[in-house]
């Protein structure tokens, strides 16, 4: 009887963990009603590198008819992400591809450098060099805009 009771408790706890995990995963994709922007990653043949969420301005429909909810976040400039020392290392020969959870209407791509310079480019490969670079994607959606950042060193 004790074993059945213990087994029941374990099953109950595990099902609770699964529910929380499912809720977390639901938050990683974007629908029109989410108050946070979708996710973006840079992919290579050797892996996926999730980009960090930067500044955004996101507006969705509220619960009541005609109501809207806006969420705004303002972060430090992407170059600061290089200074904290947590750089993603990738090979200079890797092909970099942007992977959007939800495709934006349009986006802009920038490279931020430690010396304060900023370059606008058309594809991630144009940012490869010897110096660390914070790759920024500025994406525009029907709900607003969002910035994503990944500090990278090409070796």
Overall structural class, as computed from helix and strand content, comes to: alpha+beta
Number of strands: 10
- What integer is the average pLDDT? 79
What is the 3D form? elongated
For the termini, the CA-CA separation is 61 Å
Keyphrases for this structure?
155 residues, alpha+beta, seven-stranded mixed beta sheet, three-stranded antiparallel beta sheet, disordered N terminus
Notes on the structure:
- By secondary structure, the chain is of the alpha+beta class.
- The protein folds into 2 domains: 1-30; 31-154, no CATH class.
- The protein is built from 2 helices and 10 strands.
- Strands 3, 4, 5, 7, 8, 9 and 10 form a 7-stranded mixed β-sheet that branches.
- A hairpin with a 4-residue loop joins β7 and β8 (118-121).
- Residues 2-32 have low confidence and may be disordered.
Question: Brief description of this entry?
Answer:
This protein has 2 helices and 10 strands. The chain is an alpha+beta fold. The strands form 2 sheets. Strands 3, 4, 5, 7, 8, 9 and 10 form a 7-stranded mixed sheet that branches. A 3-stranded antiparallel sheet has the order 2-1-6, with no helix packed on it.
Task: Give the topology.
Layout: H1 2-26, E1 40-44, E2 47-50, E3 52-61, E4 68-73, H2 80-83, E5 88-90, E6 97-100, E7 106-113, E8 118-121, E9 133-141, E10 144-154
Parallel strand pairs: 5-10
Antiparallel strand pairs: 1-2, 1-6, 3-4, 3-10, 7-8, 7-9, 9-10
């Amino acid at each position: 009887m004790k074993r059945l009771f213990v087994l029941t408790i374990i099953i109950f706890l595990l099902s609770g963990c699964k529910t929380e995990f499912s809720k977390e995963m639901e938050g990683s994709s974007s629908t029109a009603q989410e108050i946070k922007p979708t996710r973006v990653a840079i992919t290579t043949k050797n892996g996926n590198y999730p980009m960090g969420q930067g500044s955004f301005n996101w507006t969705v429909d509220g619960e009541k008819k005609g109501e809207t909810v806006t969420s705004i976040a303002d972060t430090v400039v992407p170059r600061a992400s290089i200074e904290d020392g947590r750089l993603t290392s990738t090979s200079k020969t890797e092909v970099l591809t942007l992977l959007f959870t939800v495709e934006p209407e349009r986006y802009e791509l920038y490279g931020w450098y430690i010396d304060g310079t900023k370059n606008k480019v058309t594809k991630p490969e144009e940012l490869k060099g010897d110096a660390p670079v914070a790759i920024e994607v500025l994406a525009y959606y029907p709900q607003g805009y969002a910035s994503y950042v990944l500090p990278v060193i090409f070796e």
